[in-house]
Amino acid sequence: MIVSQQLTGFENYSHWSKAMIVALTTKNKIGFINGSCAKSNLDSSLHSLWERVNVIILSWIFNSVSKEIFGGVVYETNASIVWADLKERFNKVNGTRIYAIHKEIAFVNQGTQSVYPYYSHLKDFWDEYWSIVNLANCACEGSKTYQGPQEQQKLLQFLMGLNENFDVCRSTILMMNPLPTVNQAYSIVTQDESQGQIVSRQSNNEVTTALISTNNANKGGNYKGKKPLIICEHCNNTIHKKDNCWNLHGYPEGHKFYKPKGQFGTKRNKTTNLASANISTSNNSQEQMQIQAPVLTKEQYNNLLKLLSKENTQPSANLAGIYTSLLSSFNNNNNWIIDSRASLHMTSNKNLLESCVSFPSNYDSLVSLPNGKQTRITHIGSILLNSRSRLDKVFYLPDFKYNLLSVSKFTNENHCSITFYPQLCTFQDLSSGVFEGDW
Q1: Dist CA 181 CA 177 (whole Å)
Q2: Which pLDDT score, from 0 to 100, does residue 315 have?
Q3: Does some domain include residue 388?
Q4: In a domain, 40, yes or no
Q5: CA–CA separation, 381 vs 196, rounded Å?
Q6: Do both 197 and 244 map to the same domain?
Q7: In this predicted structure, which of 159-163, 216-220, 268-272 has the lowest mean pLDDT?
Q8: By residue range, what is the domain housing residue 303?
Q9: 7 within a domain of the structure (yes/no)
Q10: pLDDT of residue 350
Q11: In the structure, what pLDDT confidence band is assigned to residue 279 with cuts at 50, 70 and 90?
């Protein structure tokens, strides 16, 4: 097999035949397919050598066509006849294919891909069109005069399909006099893209520094990255606080040391032992492992019971995992909900997006909302949370009322973990173990 692409039909015959001609010319065998090296033109002493070379070329052609085409040429013994037969069957040049090429060029755009695959896709269409119409491609003055408008047309087609974040670069190219070639414009755009990627990586690396700075400011600059020590003032245990001490407030129902003393264990009736589990050690030299969970106030407990009693309240199918009634407290479109079940960063405020581009129409843009309805993603961009924290690939949903920060996406991109507490959550770098701040 002397070419990498197999002939499958008229749709790729142009590329395949061009590759075969180049390969056979390199091996000095092109005369065996164009008829210039016919057996009848040679001396009888060279017939056996001609037969051998002819069979080799036949094997190259057989290995370069699909199985369906192979069955129609396998019994032919002359390479030039096989070549002429394939050309007659598949070299279909007509207005329909030219129209299809121009239509593809008109609708192709960069979308979510980088500049390189976008440009390569366009170049494939340009090369195919030139091979079909056999445009002049020599070094004479007439050819150069004709190629000038063609190069300008290719340049404009390339610039029109670029994303909006290349607006400045596009304007700079169009103001050049004379206009650069499409290859020169491609080089300029890729340099601009590389610069943008470097800036984006630097912004991501500064996210952890921003979180640490926030935490240091809250602690007077003395925070050294270690988890603060928890001490119970009643039993001196270093795992729980006095408010959650079971030795003081009583053990929960079901524990072997449980003694009924009322509905809520605290003397001041501020907290409840419902759903509470601490890891605690008795001050009487008894080591008892117990599990810690968030403590609920009586008001929170009653609100939770009312919430569970509602039949129509449902969490969102695939995104937030938050009850709709709870979301009503986050009605400011500049606030962010840190969501452990959201798979994507989402916002309802388009003004927050930087490098905002339209969401590609060829991707599935439907998203399920927490209220059970569905809406479409219309734009995608980046959001700068503060001077050092940045979110990339944030989706804009016009019909959504909240801003969601995806825990899975944020921790994966920044290589950190998030721990939730009743009043805040902390970020910890997985490589260094340093706590990066709290939200």
Answers
A1: 11
A2: 34
A3: yes
A4: yes
A5: 14
A6: no
A7: 268-272
A8: 237-309
A9: no
A10: 84
A11: very low
* Residue where one domain finishes, among candidates 284, 309, 334: 309
| Cα–Cα distance list, 390 to 82, 172, 356 (Å) | 61, 28, 14
Do 331 and 297 fall within a single domain?
no
Residues of the chain above pLDDT 70, percent: 69
Distance of CA 170 to the CA centre of its chain: 24
Among 75, 90, 105, residue at a domain's last position = 90
Contact status, residue 239 vs residue 230, Cβ threshold 8 Å: yes
> Would you tell me how many other CB atoms lie within 10 Å of the CB of residue 157?
17
Q: Which among 354, 385, 394, 390 has a CA at the least distance from the CA of 164? A: 354
Q: Does residue 5 fall inside a structural domain?
A: no
Confidence grade of residue 147 (pLDDT, cut at 50, 70, 90): confident
Alpha carbon of 407 to those of 18, 71, 382, 417, 418: distances in Å? 52, 57, 16, 9, 8
Cβ contacts of 174-180, under 8 Å, gap ≥ 24: 179/152, 179/155, 180/155
- Beta 287-288 vs 390-396: how paired, if at all? unpaired
The tokens for 312 are 């129509």
pLDDT confidence bin for 436, thresholds 50/70/90: low
Partnered with residue 391 across adjacent β-strands are: 383
Contact 428, 417 (CB under 8 A): yes
Assign 208 a pLDDT band (cuts: 50, 70, 90).
low
Residue with the two structure tokens 């968030």: 294
> Is residue 305 pLDDT above 90, yes or no?
no
